[in-house]
């Protein structure tokens, strides 16, 4: 109850204060959900009567491969580092994985190889960053150039224009069926992405290793004093990121059965960073939730759908994405200043 001498304006201000506080708390904790809902509602309005359950499940499908890569990128960014090599290692691992499949014809061996190759590529970056204290930007920029270049060289030496799965393999139908099949109308690749995301959420919220990641990103010196093995943690983070790139390469093979070394994975490193930022993870490290990456990736995918629905020139696609990324980073900065 307000005091008798309190004016109506003062009373309204008292009521508005907790409302604003609740809104700020909601935005601070769930900004990635709010951003996703705004973009998704815009898609529903623009797409209008063309919207169907199939068009929505297509969003799930088209988010799966980039989303899997973005989960690893999110871990790296949480430690305060960056990985610019994910797009190039994606095509490099994908090319090698197709060769392994064409030789063995085994889906299981192919999957294991893709994850193991990705883990090794990521661990190499991690050793250079963690053990030898080299800047992650420079290390992953160098590996980005190396992986793409080697992949194109291999393809050129084979006298082909792209890596292709041999359709005559006995397991080809099973591989293609996995990449393009559904579980209760939900794309199987999306289900894989969500399962991996759930495992990552558990790791970052319930395991000591996940807490160490946040500690390093928040204050590396304090993490060292608290007994965190910063070097080994960084190596493991980059290795996990690489393994997820390998898994994403396998999903891409199952879906499309080919890799183009010149265009596959192009700008994936930038799209993954954008998905992470839209998902609410701070670029300075130590803040954010893995769950946000699910919404951030889907929001980023929906932008493509909106551009298509509006009939815009496809060349402006990255312009729109870049502007949205700037807005997302700007909102993060405003939130940080207010705190």
UniProtKB/TrEMBL annotation:
It is a multi-pass membrane protein. Keywords: Cell membrane, Membrane, Transmembrane, Transmembrane helix. The keyword Disulfide bond does not apply. It is found in: Cell membrane. InterPro entries: ABC_transp_permease. The chain crosses the membrane at residues 30-47, 59-77, 84-101, 107-129, 136-155, 183-204, 225-250, 270-286, 293-312. It comes from the Bacteria. GO terms for cellular component: plasma membrane. Its main location: membrane. The keyword Metal-binding does not apply. GO terms for molecular function: transmembrane transporter activity. This is Inner-membrane translocator. It comes from Ruminiclostridium cellobioparum subsp. termitidis CT1112. The lineage of its organism: Bacteria, Bacillati, Bacillota, Clostridia, Eubacteriales.
């Amino acid at each position: 109850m307000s005091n008798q001498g309190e004016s109506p304006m003062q009373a309204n201000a008292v009521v508005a204060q907790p409302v604003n506080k609740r809104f700020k708390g909601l935005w601070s904790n769930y900004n990635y959900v709010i951003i996703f809902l705004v973009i998704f509602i815009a898609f529903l309005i623009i797409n209008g009567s063309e919207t169907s359950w199939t068009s929505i499940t297509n969003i799930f499908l088209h988010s799966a491969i980039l989303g899997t890569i973005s989960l690893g990128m999110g871990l790296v960014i949480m430690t305060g580092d960056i990985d610019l090599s994910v797009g190039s290692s994606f095509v490099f691992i994908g090319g090698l994985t197709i060769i392994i499949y064409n030789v063995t014809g085994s889906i299981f061996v192919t999957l294991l190889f893709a994850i193991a190759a990705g883990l090794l590529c990521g661990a190499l970056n991690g050793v250079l960053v963690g053990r030898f204290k080299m800047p992650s930007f420079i290390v992953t920029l160098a590996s980005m150039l190396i992986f793409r270049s080697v992949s194109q060289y291999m393809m050129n030496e084979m006298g082909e224009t792209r890596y292709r799965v041999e359709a005559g393999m006995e397991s080809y139908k099973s591989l293609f069926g996995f990449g393009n099949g559904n579980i209760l109308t939900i794309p199987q690749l999306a289900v894989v992405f969500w399962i991996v995301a759930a495992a990552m959420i558990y790791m970052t919220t319930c395991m000591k290793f996940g807490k160490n990641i946040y500690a390093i990103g928040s204050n590396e010196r304090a993490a060292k004093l608290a007994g965190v093995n910063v070097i080994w943690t960084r190596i493991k983070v980059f290795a996990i990121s690489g393994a997820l790139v390998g898994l994403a390469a396998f999903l891409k093979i199952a879906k499309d059965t080919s890799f183009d070394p010149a265009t596959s994975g192009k700008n994936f490193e930038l799209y993954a960073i954008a998905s992470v930022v839209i998902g609410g993870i701070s670029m300075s490290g130590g803040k954010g939730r893995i769950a946000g990456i699910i919404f951030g990736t889907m929001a980023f995918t929906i932008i493509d759908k909106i551009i298509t629905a509006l009939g815009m020139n496809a060349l402006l696609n990255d312009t729109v994405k870049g502007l949205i990324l700037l807005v997302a980073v700007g909102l993060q900065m405003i939130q940080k200043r207010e705190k």
